[in-house]
Amino acid sequence: MSADRAADLGVAVTPLIRDNAGAWDIAGEVPRDLLRKLAGEGLFCAEVPADHGGLGFSSQENGRLTAHIGSLCSSLRSVMTSHGMAAWTVQRLGDRHQRAAYLPLFTGGELAAVGFSEPNAGSDLSAMTASLTPDGDHVIVDGDKKWVTAAAYADHLIIFARHGTGAAAVVVPASAPGVTIEPVPQPMGCRAAGHATVKLRGVRVPATALLGGGDMPLPLLVTTALSYGRISVAWGCVGILRACLDVCTAHARTRRQFGRLLAEHQLVARHLAELLVSERTATLACERASHCWDTGSSEMVIATVLAKHVGAREAAQGAAAAVQVMASAGAQDGHVVARAYRDAKLMEIIEGTNELCQVILSQHALAR
Fold it and tell me: By mean pLDDT, which of 12-26, 30-44, 281-295, 301-315 is the weakest?
């Protein structure tokens, strides 16, 4: 394998994803056997160390892979993000026995999803009401989680809930008695990402499934998992922008209007220039955040929030511009820019809304 392992792996899966992404978007589903195959190759949690079956990627390498997958299919990238969050949560919160038990499953083809949000706890996760109640050598899980990405495909669910005086993350088999998974009907974006509502009613799991023993500060738990999700979404937004830039420049070089190529019309050229600026801006923010991850910088959390905010904002604006350039040629379900337009808008909401990111960034600015 060459020095750029992410590029090698991205090229290997490109044709299959590129040729089918539009159909998956329309159908609202990615074939499960493909998801299991990609997960079994370690692509969905590439940062897991090799001794647990992973690829041992750096954040930079994983980011480049995530951007490439995101340029082909945001739904698939969303599954990758949720699965990667699950693995990262086990890596960071689990003890060595739990890492040895769960990570080989996640790198071996079994699928995982992470449940944070609830009907009354979205951006404000302090309002979380799902609970974990000790019961001998087991814990009882109760609560509702909504918009759990990839839950419709998952074999394992990592559920965040109240525990003792704090909170905890627990690994729950998706097939456990008391677990009900209801797919979200016709989501606006990332339609094939397996978004679902998860209901847990008296679900009994071994206490060993409680990562790190539980009863941890809620902000620590949330920051641990959401930081991974945010940087993954940010790199995915880079992918959205690259896809829009590629298809729009190709269109503008061949489409003629009023006797001239579209690219020769200054107002169209302005859209292309702004798309390039958006892609470069988002890429630089992501590269900075991944550098902080890889070097253990104290700026890691804030750099990640910044990358997520910039990436989502630029992707939403860039995708809208791409639809304008493509016009009727892209105004059809399944088309690259039609998917990008819907998918990018959701990126401004998930893993912390634009507004929440701005609050965090403003607090950082005031504390400098």
Answer: 12-26
State how far Cα 312 lies from the chain centre.
12
Which H helix or E strand runs over 297? none
Helices (H), the chain: 5-27, 32-40, 59-72, 74-93, 96-107, 218-254, 266-295, 300-326, 336-347, 354-367
Pairing of β 131-135 and β 260-261: unpaired
Give the distance, in angstroms, between the CA of residue 73 and the centroid of all CA atoms in the same chain: 12
Q: CA dist 74 to 17, 113, 192, 343, Å?
A: 11, 16, 9, 7
Residue 184 is given by DSSP the state: P
Burial-class residue 148 by CB neighbours within 10 Å (0-12, 13-18, 19+): buried
Are the C-beta atoms of residues 113 and 102 closer than 8 Å to each other?
no
Residue 199: phi and psi, rounded to 5, are -110, 130
pLDDT tens-digit map of 142-185:
999 999 999 999 999 999 999 988 889 999 999 999 999 999 99
- Judge contact between 290 and 213, C-beta under 8 A: no
Partners of 132 in the beta sheet? Answer: 141
Three-class HEC string of 225-262: HHHHHHHHHHHHHHHHHHHHHHHHHHHHHHCEECCEEH
Residue whose pair of structure tokens reads 């969303």 in the numeric block: 78
Beta bridge partners of 163: 166
